[in-house]
Every structure is written in C-alpha cells, then in structure tokens.
Amino acid sequence: MHIKALLTVLIFFWFLPSRSQTAYSPNILPLGDLEPMMANTGTGGLASTGAVFYNPAALTMLKGTSFSLSGTAYLRYDFSVEPIATINNQNLDFNATGYQSIPTSIIMVKSVKDWKLAFSALIPMDFRYNGQINWQVSTQQETLDLNFIENYKENLFLIGLSGARKINEHWSWGATIYLQVFTFNTISDAKSQIIERPGTLTQLSNRSTVNPFNLVLFAGIHRKGDKVDLGLKLSTPSLYLFGTGDFYEFRYSNDLINAIEIEETNLTKVDTKFNSPAEIRIGAVFKPGEKWKIATDLSYNFKMKYDIYPSGELDDIEELRSSYRLSSGGEYIMNKNISIYAGGSYTPSIKLSEENYKDPDYISIVTGFKLKSENFTSNLGLFYSLGKGEQPKSIGTGQTNLTYRYLGAFLGTNYKF
C-alpha cells in the first residue's frame, strides 16, 4: 500500500469528535449543591443554591443568606475509538486518557427586600486528555510504522448574577446572566514511515487555540406546592461577544520517489467562536413523605451550526444535533443530620436513518450522602457516566465504535447565616 493512501487515516484524527462533549452538555457534570447527588436534577427546586444553574426562580425557596462552595469534582476520563480503520484485516484502535476537574463553584445568595439575589462563579472547569499510539501495518511489500499523538486541553469559566422574586404564595420567577469564557487548545502530530525504505516520512502536525467570550441567559418559573413542586427553565444560545485564536499546520511528505511536498499554514490572532445551544428544561419534585424527596428533570437541547473561524480564514464548521436528557434522583432522610442520595440519567442519541453515524448515548449514575449541622451542610458523592456512539470507519467497511467514560467524586459545602 502506498504511504499516501494511509495518510487519510492520520488526517482523519483531526476530525474525531475529540472536542469534549462536556462543553455542549454540561449537565453530565456535577454542578450545584444538592443537585449533583440527584443526577443533576433541580429544575423543580431543591431549596439549594444550585438553583442559579438549574432554575433561578427556585432561589425563592431559600431562607436568609447562603454561601456555598460546591460542585468540586475530580474525574477520570477515557476516550476510545475501536477501530478507527481496518487495513489488511488489522484493526487500528486509538485510546486516550485524561481528567476533568471543577475546582470550585462559588455561590452567594442574599435576600434584599422582596428579591433573592445571587452571585456565582465556576472557577474554572478544566478538562484535558493525552493520547499516544503506535501501529505497524504490514502489506504484501512493505511495513508501515504509524505514530499518532494528541494532547487536548479545555477550560470553561462562568461568572454571573441571578435574581428571583415571588409572584404570589405559590409562583416565582427568576433569571441568571453569565459571562462565559471558553478556551481549548489542541496539539496533534501524526507520522508514518516505511520500515524497508529508511528516509521515507509523511508527517502532519497541527496546533490550534480558540478563546471566545459569550453571554448566556437563563430564565425560569417555579411553582411550590404541598406535595409537588414544578419548574421550567429556558436557556438562550450563547451570545457571541468576541474571540481570538491561533492555528498552525505543517504537512511533509517524502516517499523517495516523487518530489518532497511541504505545506505550512500559520494564522495568528484570528477571530474564533464557540456557541452553546438553546435549552429547555422542565422538572418536578415529589414529596411522598417526610423522609422522601424524588426529583425528575427532562431537558431538550436545540440543534446548532456555526463556523469556529467566522472571518473565513479556515473552514471548520461545528454542527450540533438536537438531543434530550431524562434524569431522576431521590433523597432519603435517615435522621436530622444525615441524608442519602442516589440517581441516574439517560441521554439518548437522535440518529437519522440516512446517516451512518450517531452521537453518543450517555448513561450516568450517582450516589452520595449529606451531613448537616446547625449552620453547615456538607455533601459527598460519586459519579460515573458512560457514552457510546458510532461512525463509519476511515478505511475498511463497517462501523467505528466511540466510547467515553467519566468517573470521579464531588464535594459540596454550604454555610447559612
């Protein structure tokens, strides 16, 4: 097999869905105070400071002033592509590992006359992974040595203000506005050499940085009842403010037969963009008894399409299909100081019949407990999420299986005064 025929395998890695799913689906990560231990439900209201993320109208359920450090998470991340291609009955698999951390989400809630006002910040979400793989592919005449390295880093910073007010005894409304700062950086390098012909080399190196600034608006309504609380939250698509980034790519090919080919692209301080889609969430909290609380949320993300480089220097279109998510969690109060939690969620892929690929299906489970004293509440929980998707093989017939795994723990602390 000619070395250039295998270059398509290497180039294909730049089009893997390696950008973190979390940037577009933050609900798979623990955010808030009590909400993470109930599978990220909270639109129906949990009397938690995490309402700033899930439904700001539910802030009216809080009494007095609250300060919380919550949503702390340290997650292990695994990403696998099996196989990316099949050549001469040999499967080429790719695996990467990394971690996701949310050091602290800070939330301050204060009563001002008839209003509940809140300040919140996510400082910041940090996601990164590293993948390195080597293949040796034998053909009838030669052996190809293939090496691929990819390093990925992503940060998401949120800082915002919330306000909520009661309409009457049962109904309230609220809104949150966030400044959203997103950064991702990728460094990839792919090389192929023919072992029997020393000196041959095909190399493709790529480095890109994107750093846009956006505004995001949440608005919600909430109804408090005796046995059932209800909530509705709407999120706007992120409103692009500005953004810059860099892009560098180097291509080199020497097969010792044809002329050496070299291509180089170097762009600095170009306009860059990142958008998160619009979302609608409905939720309910059921209180069947004094010791039990069950929360359920259903969310829908709208489809979105945009150019990461809007000024046209590069053609890099990000297209997000619509998706929905069902989650449910429960709280059981063992005594006045200890409560236990468990929950799960499912995010199915919406697959079109004419397409040969589908976005990942996500299944998540959580469990944890809460310790309560006079002024302090501390939460500790465990989190696991598994995502599976498909797409056509780069070379060969059949499908490529994509697998994402998240595993970790989270901690929340709340002080009321």
Automatic annotation (TrEMBL):
SUPFAM superfamilies: Porins. Gene3D superfamilies: Outer membrane protein transport protein (OMPP1/FadL/TodX). It is found in: Cell outer membrane. The keyword RNA-binding does not apply. One of its GO terms (cellular component) is cell outer membrane. The keyword Cytoplasm does not apply. Keywords: Cell outer membrane, Membrane, Signal, Transmembrane, Transmembrane beta strand. InterPro entries: OMPP1/FadL/TodX. Belongs to the OmpP1/FadL family. This is Long-chain fatty acid transport protein.
